[in-house]
Design a protein that fits this description.
61% helix, alpha+beta, globular, 4-stranded antiparallel sheet, 167 residues
Length: 167
Amino acid sequence: MEKGRALTVKKKLPFLLISIAVLILDQWTKKLIASSMFLGESQRIIGDVVRFTYIRNPNSVFGLRLGGPIISTVLTVIAFLFVVYLFVVAKNPIFLTSISFIIGGALGNLVDRIFYMEVVDFIEIGVGRFRWPTFNMADSFVTIGIILVIIHWFLEYRYDNSSSNFV
């Protein structure tokens, strides 16, 4: 392995570990819910605002129907490969952290889709009848990662609009 490439891998190792930690946390929480709750069971965590409701979701993120489990899996793989490409070319630590969250979350749901053709969702947030679609830790990290990418892009563009390279 050439020296420059090895250095790049060493510099990105902490970010790979973030992705692995997100994957492990996601899989652990899904196994914990699946082993301690009945399918469809709901438990209040913070009043009626936050509940853990164990469901299995064969659709895409937040229950969106994009053509069934196979189409969802294919779309997830395509998006995942694009994000991995961004990770490979990225140099900015904030951007790498954001992408690491997205990779870890995407892997968490991709593992479920490949092995079970569905994902375990359990986090339910809302007030009364106004509920956000049930989601999981993987979805949370993907969402946080995307928000951080947008913030990073906005700050980079705002303070350095002469450069189009924000990764």
